[in-house]
């Protein structure tokens, strides 16, 4: 019985490999760009992996990466086609600042081709890191993105790191001092901060600490003080993580296995930091994906308030100027980041919590 | 057996106890019944309501929401200003009533008061276009709350329908429906809102003119559209999960065995049992919609001017932050108060009604 | 036997301080346990049997506190131990296994890591020795493929296997006393018998004393040297297993025995005990069981029954027993 099953599986594997190689070969000669060929290869390998990996975790990882690639593709498609639905198209003549740009656009975007072909060409450009040209400034969008993203990455990175670290620590403190003063103070402030939109938080901080108290200088290229923007960006996710950690910590501390650990004679602090925290962190890990999305969108607002000149500022400017290629490029770029963050947090989740099984 | 501890009381012979023999008579049932402490019998709903009204935070937020609701309904009835038009004194447009601080009057108004006329005070002052700021904040709160309610309603209806069909149908239908949900779920929603707002703004801008929908503007419509397209997936997942757990309960099997139709089973057995979770989630959806609206207003994709929303008011106050900081404070406090109240109310509802938290 | 028993519990009171008030879970229980003996504690849910065991281990939840009494281990009161002393004491001198093996193992650590941790805390073995001991323990409790199991996570094991792992973990440091808190309740009937058998054989091999907590008299019938029946946080009756089964003196014990299904008596109906458990928040005066007792007397509602020696190895706290003994004595005099 088992033997025939194995034979069947081997045969399936053989067929799949053959088909994959054939598809890859056809792709190699028909696809014009190297990155497309590589992508095709990767996708084929991942599909094979998702089908034939004996290891649960391996299969799961392959599937998740495939799903993430599909998501990015769908996002790109939605972005492109909705933008194309705008009367006159995103690159219509009235939007272009000059004839020169118009000519470049015509050539770059093959505006005379059918929409489907245009989309494929746009995708091809994306894979080479080419997001098109801004209709307002006439600059390469990829240059704008990569130049300004440095600031945003630094800002978001600090904010994410602080949010997670402080949130976990505060949440644990609140859980371990349940119904005592520390818990009440922490929960009071975090409940408050969750309810304040980031742009109001940013404006208030700017008003109080920059303009009234003069503790921090206003952001400029010479004077890059990240304190206030980071705080404005961080408070809400930090508060959320605090509450999340507290709830799950309390839940975990009431679990039977914590009692087991205590009964074994494990030291009190080890019970908390080894046995409880590891389990309590699982929900926090799942929040990392949404948090990245929150921070990236939040940074649009916070950066605009503090005029940091990061990607968020550029995006909002693009929206105000109705600079469609810029909106498209940035949307796809940010969406890819968010999808990647979700993917990573899901993978870490799978590793930390061995119970999760994914069909 | 082991010898008993010498510290335990020594052997007692019954006669040494010196007991009243009269008491060794059988007790009547009534006497025994007196002993049974009767616990009040309560229903799930009653018990939950009692818990809810014992929670001071939930009661407080209900009061706050009630006061806000009453204010925004009643205030326009006795405040003689409109949210869109300039202040007029005796039919003349009052151009001197620009950026007045709270409870002050413009020159023209002062003259009118001196002449013995009654001028309704500007509780929050006026804005840069000589409009009464109080009434604008009131209308802003109306718009924000309406957006929150309608968006949650859309999410509720679509999510409920989709989720119950997927959960009830099961099998292949469920698999395909949930794969669609998975993909939509992985799209970054805020970015999609921005994208659709930009596009619909252009698409609907002209066609909306002279219709009822014109006053809420294409941005709000696109926001509702996005809620209808994207945000329902969370609700759908929740409903499906609930239904899957309830579906396998014996009483549902019993109803099926008696030949009840699927519609009846969903309506009579499944929905009432997952109602609490759905209501809680809807209550928490409202602040999230208000958040999204204020975010969109901030990046310039909010309601159509001159219609105010709390987000757009806060955004326009940002421009003159240093000169008139109080203009920021009113809408900001408004948003925070509404969001906070809904959050606390949602938490209170969850604590009171979530079956998972009941012991 | 004049030397002190291994474990003496004297007049133990434990309460939980909740928002609703003081829940008096254990109201003065006393017992002794000698080395190598098996003591059974029987009672329904909420009778305080588990709480009394947790009090001995001092692993009550935050709200629970021992309000009175002492627990002497080899003559030393462990309730007076410092947290550090207590931490060293738990797991090495007294171990415990719990009711539900599904939830008692940490889901995010492998079996091996949890087992090794238990060994490492109380001994100074090196890595290889710890690993060897872990393997040895798994073999001892009859886990198949122990090498593979060490690398697995709890969710990959069946309930019976997990309970075996729990036993291995509890016995890894050769404790003097093993407390088994309803070790078979959450398991299938066939597995129950296996686990009980395993515990009996391990007891013979390792010679530890066992406190067996259960709500099922049948489970411990042939295993225990001595049985305590608890109700409402108090001891109803205690004595040798034979005495409890064949000469029960407390109405509650009688009810418990009637509610055990038997195959020998074909057409006998099972008799449940009517009513619901006593409310520990407001303990009534008099006997806690009185309102559910078929033979309740006026005195039962007014006065706490006192512990009375039925014979050398049997104590009961029931007014009906007192009445019966008074009757017997009177008859004796008359005769």
Percent of residues in helices of chain A comes to over 70%
Helix-strand topology string of chain A = HHHHHHHHHHHHH
Chain-averaged pLDDT of chain B: 78
Distance between the termini of chain A: 24 Å
Q: Give the total of beta strands of chain A.
A: 0
**How many helices of chain B?**
12
| Secondary-structure class of chain B | mainly alpha
Extract low-pLDDT stretches of chain B: 1-10
Count of discrete alpha- or pi-helical segments spanning 4 or more residues of chain A: 13
**Nearest-integer average pLDDT of chain A:** 81
What shape does the CA trace of chain A take?
flat
In terms of structural class, how would the helical and strand content of chain A be classed?
A: mainly alpha
**What are the segments of chain A in which pLDDT stays under 50 over at least 5 consecutive residues?**
none
Anisotropy-based shape of chain B: flat
Q: Main sheet of chain B, how many strands, which sense, barrel?
A: 2 strands, antiparallel
Which strand order does the major sheet of chain B show?
Answer: 1-2
Rg over alpha carbons of chain B:
31 Å
Structure description:
The complex is a heterotrimer of chains A (359), B (359) and C (335). Chain A has 359 residues and is mainly α. Chain A is 78% helix and 0% strand. In chain A, helix 3 packs across helix 5, helix 7 packs across helix 9 and helix 11 (268-306) packs antiparallel against helix 13. The radius of gyration of chain A is 25 Å and the shape is flat. Chain B has twelve helices and two strands, in the order H-H-H-E-E-H-H-H-H-H-H-H-H-H. Chain B has helices spanning 29-35, 44-54, 56-78, 107-114, 133-169, 171-186, 189-207, 217-247, 250-257, 262-298, 310-319, 325-353, and strands spanning 88-89, 92-93. Chain B is flat and about 100 Å long. The relative contact order of chain B is 0.12. The model of chain B is unreliable at 1-10 (pLDDT under 50). Chain C is 36% helix and 23% strand. Chain C has helices at 49-57, 83-89, 101-104, 111-122, 127-140, 146-151, 159-171, 189-206, 217-220, 241-246, 251-258, 298-302, 319-334; strands at residues 7-18, 21-33, 38-42, 64-73, 76-77, 94-97, 177-181, 209-214, 226-231, 234-240, 308-311, 314-316. Chain C is globular, with a radius of gyration of 21 Å. The A-B interface holds A 67-68, 70-71, 74-75, 78-79, 82-83, 85-87, 191-192, 194-197, 199-200, 203-204, 206-207, 211, 293, 297, 300-301, 304-305, 316, 319-320, 322, 324, 327, 331, 334-335, 338-339, 342 and B 182-183, 186-192, 194-196, 198-199, 202-203, 287, 291, 294-295, 298-301, 311, 314-315, 318, 321-322, 325, 328, 332, 335-336, 339-340, 343-344.
């Amino acid at each position: 019985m088992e033997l025939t099953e194995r034979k069947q599986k081997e045969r399936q594997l053989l067929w799949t490999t053959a088909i994959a190689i054939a598809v890859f070969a056809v792709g190699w000669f028909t696809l014009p760009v190297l990155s497309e060929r590589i992508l095709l290869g990767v996708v084929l390998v991942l599909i094979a992996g998702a089908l034939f990996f004996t290891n649960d975790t391996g299969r799961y990882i392959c599937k998740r990466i495939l799903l993430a690639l599909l998501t990015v593709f769908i996002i790109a498609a939605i972005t492109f086609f909705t933008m194309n639905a705008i009367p006159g198209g995103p690159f219509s003549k009235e939007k272009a600042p000059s004839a020169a740009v118009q000519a470049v656009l015509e050539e770059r975007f093959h505006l005379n081709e059918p929409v489907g072909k245009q989309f494929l060409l746009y995708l091809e450009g994306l894979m080479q890191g080419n997001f098109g040209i801004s209709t307002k400034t006439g600059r390469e969008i990829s240059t704008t993105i990569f130049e300004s993203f440095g600031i945003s990455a630094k800002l978001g990175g600090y904010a994410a790191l602080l949010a997670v670290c402080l949130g976990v620590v505060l949440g644990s403190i609140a859980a371990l001092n349940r119904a005592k003063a520390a818990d009440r103070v922490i929960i009071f402030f975090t409940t408050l901060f969750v309810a304040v939109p980031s742009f109001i938080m940013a404006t208030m901080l700017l008003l109080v600490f920059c303009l009234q108290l003069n503790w921090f200088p206003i952001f400029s290229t010479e004077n890059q003080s990240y304190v206030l923007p980071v705080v404005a960006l961080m408070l809400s996710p930090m508060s959320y993580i605090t509450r999340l950690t507290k709830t799950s910590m309390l839940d975990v501390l009431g679990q039977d296995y914590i009692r087991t650990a205590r009964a074994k004679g494990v030291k009190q602090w080890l019970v908390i930091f080894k046995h409880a925290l590891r389990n309590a962190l699982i929900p926090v890990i799942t929040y990392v994906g949404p948090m990245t999305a929150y921070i990236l969108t939040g940074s649009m607002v916070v950066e605009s308030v503090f005029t940091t000149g990061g990607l968020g500022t550029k995006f909002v400017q693009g929206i105000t100027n109705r600079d469609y290629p810029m909106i498209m490029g940035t949307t796809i770029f940010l969406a890819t980041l968010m999808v990647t963050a979700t993917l990573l947090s899901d993978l870490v989740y799978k590793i930390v919590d061995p119970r999760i099984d994914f069909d | 057996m082991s010898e008993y501890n010498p510290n335990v009381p020594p052997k007692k012979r019954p006669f040494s106890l010196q007991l009243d023999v009269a008491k060794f008579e059988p007790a009547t049932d009534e006497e025994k019944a007196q002993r049974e402490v009767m616990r009040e019998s309560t229903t799930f709903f009653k018990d939950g309501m009692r818990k809810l009204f014992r929670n001071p935070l939930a009661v407080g937020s209900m009061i706050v929401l009630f006061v806000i609701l009453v204010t925004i309904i009643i205030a326009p009835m006795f405040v003689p200003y409109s949210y869109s038009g300039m202040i007029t004194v005796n039919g003349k447009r009052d151009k001197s009533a620009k950026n007045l601080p709270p409870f002050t009057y413009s020159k023209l108004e002062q003259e009118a008061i001196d002449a013995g006329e009654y001028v309704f005070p500007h509780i929050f002052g006026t804005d840069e276009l000589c409009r009464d700021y109080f009434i604008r904040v009131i209308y802003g709160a109306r718009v924000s709350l309406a957006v929150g309610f309608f968006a949650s309603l859309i999410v509720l209806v679509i999510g409920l329908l989709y989720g119950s069909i997927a959960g009830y149908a099961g099998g292949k239908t469920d698999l395909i429906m949930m794969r669609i949900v998975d993909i939509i779920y992985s799209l970054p929603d805020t970015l999609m809102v921005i994208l659709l707002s930009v596009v619909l703004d252009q698409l609907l801008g002209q066609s909306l003119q002279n219709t009822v929908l014109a006053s809420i503007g294409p941005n709000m419509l696109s926001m509702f559209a996005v809620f209808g397209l994207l945000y329902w997936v969370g609700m759908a997942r929740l409903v499906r999960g609930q239904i899957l757990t309830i579906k396998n309960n014996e009483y549902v099997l019993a109803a099926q065995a008696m030949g009840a139709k699927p519609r009846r089973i969903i309506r009579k057995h499944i929905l009432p049992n997952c109602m609490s979770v759905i209501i809680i989630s809807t209550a928490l959806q409202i602040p999230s919609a208000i958040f999204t609206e204020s975010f969109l207003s901030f990046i310039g994709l909010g309601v159509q001017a001159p219609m105010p929303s709390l987000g757009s008011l806060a955004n326009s106050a940002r421009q003159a932050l240093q000169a008139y900081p109080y203009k920021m404070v009113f809408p900001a406090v408004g948003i925070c108060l509404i969001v906070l109240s809904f959050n606390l109310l949602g938490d209170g509802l969850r604590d009171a009604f979530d079956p998972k938290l009941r012991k | 036997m004049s030397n002190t028993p291994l474990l003496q519990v004297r007049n133990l009171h434990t309460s939980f301080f909740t928002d609703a008030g003081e829940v008096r879970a254990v109201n003065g229980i006393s017992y002794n346990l000698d080395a190598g003996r098996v003591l059974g504690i029987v009672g329904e849910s909420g009778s305080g049997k588990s709480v009394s065991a947790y009090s001995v281990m001092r692993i009550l939840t935050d709200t629970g506190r021992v309000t009175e009494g002492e627990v002497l281990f080899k003559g030393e009161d462990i309730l007076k131990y410092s947290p550090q002393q207590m931490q060293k004491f738990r797991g090495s001198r007294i171990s415990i296994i719990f009711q539900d093996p599904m939830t008692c193992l940490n889901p995010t650590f492998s079996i091996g890591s949890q087992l090794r941790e238990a060994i490492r805390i109380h001994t100074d073995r090196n890595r290889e020795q710890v690993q060897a001991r872990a393997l040895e323990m798994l073999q001892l409790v009859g886990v198949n493929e122990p090498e593979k199991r060490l690398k697995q996570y709890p969710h990959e094991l069946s309930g019976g296997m997990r309970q075996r792992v729990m036993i291995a973990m509890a016995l890894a440091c050769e404790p003097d006393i093993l407390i088994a808190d309803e070790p078979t309740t959450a398991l299938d009937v066939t597995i129950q018998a296996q686990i009980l058998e395993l515990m009996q054989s391990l007891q013979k091999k390792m010679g530890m004393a066992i406190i067996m907590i259960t709500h099922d008299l049948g489970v411990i019938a042939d295993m225990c040297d001595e049985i305590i029946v608890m109700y409402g946080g108090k001891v109803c009756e205690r004595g040798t297993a034979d005495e409890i089964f064949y000469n029960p003196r407390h109405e509650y014990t009688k009810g418990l025995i009637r509610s055990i299904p038997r195959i020998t008596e074909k057409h006998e109906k099972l008799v449940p005990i009517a009513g619901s458990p006593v409310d520990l928040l407001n303990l009534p005066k008099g006997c806690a069981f009185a309102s559910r007792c078929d033979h309740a007397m006026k005195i039962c509602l007014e006065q706490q029954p006192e512990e009375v020696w039925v014979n050398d190895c049997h104590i009961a706290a029931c007014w009906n027993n007192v009445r019966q003994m008074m009757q017997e004595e009177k008859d004796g005099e008359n005769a």
